[in-house]
Design goal:
4 helices; five-stranded antiparallel beta sheet; homodimer; Thiol Ester Dehydrase, Chain A; alpha+beta
């Protein structure tokens, strides 16, 4: 993975990550640890819920989305720091066996003179194997400026 | 844990969860799986970063926050469905050994006649052992209305 600085991001830039399958085992394991609601951990209770079957925790979808983005190299070898997220929407359920991938689009970048980092606004859309958006969000990300980087 | 319906939520209601310690092992394990950036997984690289030491992935903080809220009983035994989040801000780093707890405040509730669920807006503030806010967010949550509940 290469280094990547604020200057390397371009407004309008668009990246599509690799994809990953979410298994029932992974969905249940994540939810047992972090979101043990019946429709995430118990197939019988999930069957009686409005979803009709197990669905992934929305926080599992955010975590898997982050992993796909990190692996894509978008944040570079040193990483980039998330300041916050707006417009996070879980638009479709994620079911066991679904394959997720992410599209990232750079909406805006802003730097202040003398500040070592600039702020990027990036829209991230997580999709399933049917091309449906399952989650959307717009993140504010802090990225180091090249001239302030230490060797 | 008791059942809990849309009607059981009151605007202005405020709940404080139990607390939990995040260990270095947990922070590194979560980040290795979901957010393997150097300042989350590698103590040496983290020491050279702007943080000076390991910090938790922001997505780990969201996941732990969810667990504290579920365990508090706020969502009831059947659970409640997250539609989305706005204003998610990671306002302070979370370090190994930090103790987190969450305050939830009901801002607004809205139901539409004949719809089986209503929408709640809940502000969630995650704090550390020094009383500092480390993360804030406002969630939109779908909760079943009592008259539509199946026995």
């Amino acid at each position: 993975m290469r280094d990547r600085y604020f200057e390397d991001w371009a407004v309008g830039e668009r990246l599509e990550t690799a994809s990953v399958v979410l298994t029932e085992e992974q969905i249940v394991a994540f939810a047992r640890e972090f979101d043990p609601q019946p429709f995430h951990v118990d197939p019988d209770a999930a069957g009686a819920s409005m979803f009709g079957r197990l669905i992934a925790s929305g926080w599992h979808t955010t975590a898997v989305t982050m992993r796909l983005l990190v692996d894509s190299g978008l944040f570079g070898v040193r990483g980039a720091v998330g300041l916050g997220v707006d417009g996070l929407r879980w638009t479709k359920p994620v079911y066991p066996g679904d394959t997720l991938s992410v599209v990232a689009e750079v909406l805006e970048k802003r730097a202040t003179p003398d500040k070592p980092s600039g702020v990027l606004h990036v829209r991230m859309t997580t999709r399933n194997q049917r091309g449906e958006d399952v989650m959307t969000q717009t993140a504010a990300i802090l990225a180091l400026r090249r001239e302030f980087a230490q060797p």
